[in-house]
Design brief:
The protein has 498 residues and is of the alpha/beta class. The protein has helices at residues 27-38, 72-82, 97-110, 134-140, 150-163, 202-208, 238-242, 251-264, 281-293, 314-322, 337-343, 349-362, 379-395, 437-458, 460-472, 478-494, and strands at 2-7, 10-12, 42-47, 56-59, 62-68, 86-91, 116-120, 144-146, 173-174, 221-223, 226-227, 247-248, 269-272, 299-306, 325-333, 365-372, 399-404.
Length: 498
Amino acid sequence: MRIAFVNPAMVFDPRDPFTTGVVYLPIGLAYGASAARAAGHDVDVIDVFGLAPRDVSRLGRLGGLVRVGITDAALVESLEHCGAGLVVFYANQLINHDALVGSIRSARAALPGVPIVVAENSQAVTAYQLTKVAAEFFDAGADALIGGEMELRLLDVADRLEAGAALDGIDGVSTPGRLVPASASIEDLDLLPVPAWDLLPLQSYWSLKYAHGPMTSDRYLPLLTSRGCPFPCRFCVVPATNNRRWRARGARDVVDEIALFADVLGVAEYHVEDLNPTINDARIRDIASLIIDRGLRVSWKIVAGTKLESMKTLDTVRLMAQSGCSYVSISPESGSADLLKRIGKPFDVDYAREFVAYCAKVGIRTQACFVLGFPEETEQDRRLSRRLVRSLAWAGVSEIAVFVIAPVPGSAIYDDFAGQAPSLSSLSFSPAWRQDYRALSRMRLRMYATFLAVKTVRHPLRVARQAGNFARRRFETKMEMVPFRAMAYRRMARSLPK
């Protein structure tokens, strides 16, 4: 069967270009395409965003949002040209939802006899559980939804469709009137073929000079060294899409992939997009040791966050730095112990201060992520978060990120906000529709101001270095890169007709 994989348009809010419009190379799609190709299927990838990452239009009924990528008409033309027997749309990010649904409608109208399925992005906190919003996809014309890991289910779907058989009974595959959450997961990740990056327009992504992680060089690739997360954070969709199971690739398999793409594509910068890559401290040490032993001159960055306590000792951090690790994102979430209990995530504040100070000493930049607006959060909880920001800034954390919580379909708190958001695409990190958004936004600004004030006093040379990095477009932190991205988005938005 000829399978066309579609990465949807990217969406940003020009009123808030700092927290919206994060660019991700679609690694889950690249894995799915690779698995399909390895099984003998003919594969095409149509990256709606990647084919035209500077072409913008207003997003339909949500006139305040901006859609980036080729038009739906151009997508349909590409699908007709390749002669796909199955179209797989990748539900990459929640904010892209309305653009994704619009593309599905266009594809269904143009290709009435071609099966269309939507594959869940189970390895990102910015994605969502498809069964929670299935009606919108089926109304748009989708025939099935694939939950969980695409590689585990897609080949069965393709084989049955090719044989004219029903899709009933496949774990994680939902059809109209029959929702089936994913329960099984891939146990031996080392058996998966490497992502099919040859099918993606990599040069388009690299030319932007911004990504999810900070870009220090001209070329980068995302890397998944593990899948899942064992923690039950109540604002996060991952407990639902991974059933709190963490599985890891072997250290040798990870380093083999790094070496392969360093050789084939000349990539020396790798952004680790795992949900929680350091759960097994010994494995991280093995990865670092193998990179060193094989003489690979690469930079690798943990850009999507990790549990800092799982890096057991500072000797692990030293080995990571020696192997080329230059950035680690951690997630305190809150400075309030009481609120962390309600969230379901413990955090060791004392070790965090020691950790960020040592990272600064060995040349690893660090990010600390916080959330505001968790249900029942008090003003005292927020003050404690601001106090922790001050403490980590003094210790040497390179940057912070503060997100206002929006209810992700599939998260434990989703029903707490039922009916409040105007659309799924409005569930961004700046949910202006929240009644308390103004107060939360003011606190977010105070937390950033506190961080910058303390850092300027305590680490003035680092502040000057960050300004220089921004000017050179050589980004060691996201705080250096995001303003550059925001300026690009403002230019794009201004080019649109009023």
